[in-house]
């Protein structure tokens, strides 16, 4: 079945979203791709690409995302790149699960490779350059690894970390049919953990999920059972995250969080949260973003100080069904004392136009609630985006 795309510029139908979720995420991983191999690509301004990356020992390719167009109040800190001292070719030299245990390894994964992940012993100072037709077919656990960069390829049963530091993920298509979530940072032990300097750029995360649990992207930076933030310096850019049976993302306890040019979607009937801020987050910049399904801000039970603080949300578009909510943001009691500003953002509501309501946040102007037909997604106000496939990994 071919997805039905609207003929109007910047519009894409709900049928396309569902077709995308079921076909691209579940059947696309590991198949032949017509896109350039990740080992022949380098990310430049705004996630665009140029030909050729020179692989040099000790001076790894460390793609970044151009944030110069965004006025971000907090200091943005990118992960420290790995320092590599050897090259390992997979599978010619050894399997992937063995190669990534070697400290200082530059791991080059060949086209068409298919192999197991790793659950213990991930090395430090590891750079992975994976062809976009290669796949890791079981869970990848980074543990508390330091200075790891990964570009390209597919992971078909999810990834997670412990107290990782200096992790950069670029242009990876991560899916999961067994774990509840696709990309989990800090949630290795089932609760939050301390992690620092993590960047997730040009990545796709999709999980089948289960009722009551599951996210395309989960950032677990708060201590379990508290609103104490223990994670620092996270960048998410040009991401596409969601689940079939629960929520799009969950964001816990992060200080200095930047999310731009990113779309998250809730379960396929859109009757859940696409964005979920949970526990305390401080100094948060969100811009040019989309949520298909409502937005939640949830404090710790019984703790009124579990909100989101110093939030700057600009040009965010929320698509809500009549059976869901007309609110831009739902705040679960006890209402958190959110601080910050929402500017130029829109609730697209199936039930019709009406009051926007910034909810304990300053109305920076240009916000509105407009009528939505419940099936057509308008990307015309999102720079460089015309369809869902403009977000996330390119394969």
What would you note in describing this structure?
- It is a single chain.
- The protein has 395 residues and is mainly beta.
- The chain has a single domain (11-390), classed as Pectate Lyase C-like (3 Solenoid), CATH 2.160.20.
- The protein has helices at 14-27, 96-99, and strands spanning 11-13, 41-43, 49-51, 86-90, 105-109, 114-115, 126-130, 135-136, 140-141, 146-151, 154-155, 159-160, 165-170, 173-176, 183-185, 196-201, 204-207, 215-220, 231-237, 240-243, 247-252, 254-260, 263-265, 273-278, 281-292, 294-298, 308-320, 330-331, 340-343, 346-349, 362-363, 368-371, 376-378.
- It has a 21-stranded parallel sheet that branches. Strands 9-12-15-18-21 form a 5-stranded parallel sheet, with no helix packed on it. A 3-stranded parallel sheet has the order 24-26-28, with no helix packed on it.
- Strand 2 and strand 3 (49-51) form a beta hairpin.
- The model is unreliable at 1-60 (pLDDT under 50).
Distance between the termini: 19 Å
Write down the overall geometry.
globular
The name CATH uses for the topology is Pectate Lyase C-like
Radius of gyration based on Cα positions: 20 Å
Total domain count: 1
Number of extended strands = 33
Mean pLDDT, as a whole number? 82
Largest sheet: 21 strands, parallel
CATH architecture: 3 Solenoid
Structural class: mainly beta
Extract low-pLDDT stretches: 1-60
Oligomerization state: single chain
Strand content: 35-45%
Percent helix: under 10%
What is the name of the CATH class? Mainly Beta
The DSSP helix count reads 2
């Amino acid at each position: 079945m071919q997805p039905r795309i609207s003929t109007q510029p910047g519009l894409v139908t709900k049928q396309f979203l569902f077709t995308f979720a079921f076909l691209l995420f579940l059947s696309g991983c590991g198949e032949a791709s017509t896109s350039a191999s990740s080992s022949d690509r380098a990310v430049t301004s705004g996630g665009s690409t140029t030909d050729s990356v020179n692989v040099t020992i000790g001076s790894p390719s460390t793609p970044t995302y151009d944030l110069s167009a965004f006025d971000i109040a907090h200091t943005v800190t990118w992960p420290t790149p790995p320092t590599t001292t050897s090259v390992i070719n997979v599978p010619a030299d050894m399997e992937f699960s063995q190669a990534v245990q070697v400290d200082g390894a530059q791991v080059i994964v060949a086209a068409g490779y298919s192999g197991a992940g790793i659950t213990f012993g991930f090395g430090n100072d590891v750079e992975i350059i994976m062809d976009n037709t290669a796949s890791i077919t079981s869970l990848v656990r980074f543990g508390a690894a330091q200075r790891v960069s990964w570009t390209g390829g597919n992971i078909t049963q999810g990834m997670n970390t412990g107290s990782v530091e200096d992790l950069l993920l670029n242009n990876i298509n991560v899916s999961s049919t067994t774990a509840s979530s696709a990309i989990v940072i800090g949630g290795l032990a089932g609760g939050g953990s301390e992690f620092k300097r993590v960047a997730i750029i040009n990545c796709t995360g999709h999980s089948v999920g289960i009722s009551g649990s599951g996210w395309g992207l989960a950032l677990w930076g708060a201590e379990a059972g508290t609103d104490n933030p223990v994670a620092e310096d996270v960048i998410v850019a040009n991401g596409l995250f969601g689940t079939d049976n629960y929520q799009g993302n969950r964001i816990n306890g992060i200080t200095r969080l930047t999310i731009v040019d990113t779309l998250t979607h809730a379960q396929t009937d859109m009757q859940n949260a696409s964005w979920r801020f949970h526990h305390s987050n401080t100094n948060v910049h969100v811009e040019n973003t989309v949520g298909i399904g409502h937005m939640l801000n949830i404090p710790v039970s019984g703790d009124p100080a579990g909100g989101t603080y110093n939030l700057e949300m600009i040009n965010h578009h929320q698509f809500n069904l009549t059976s869901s909510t007309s609110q831009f943001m739902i705040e679960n009691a006890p209402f958190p004392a959110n601080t910050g500003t929402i500017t130029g953002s829109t609730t697209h509501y199936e039930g019709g136009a009406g009051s926007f309501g910034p909810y304990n946040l300053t109305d920076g102007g240009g916000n509105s609630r407009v009528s939505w037909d419940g099936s057509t997604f308008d990307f015309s106000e999102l720079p460089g985006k015309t369809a869902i496939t403009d977000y996330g990994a390119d394969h």
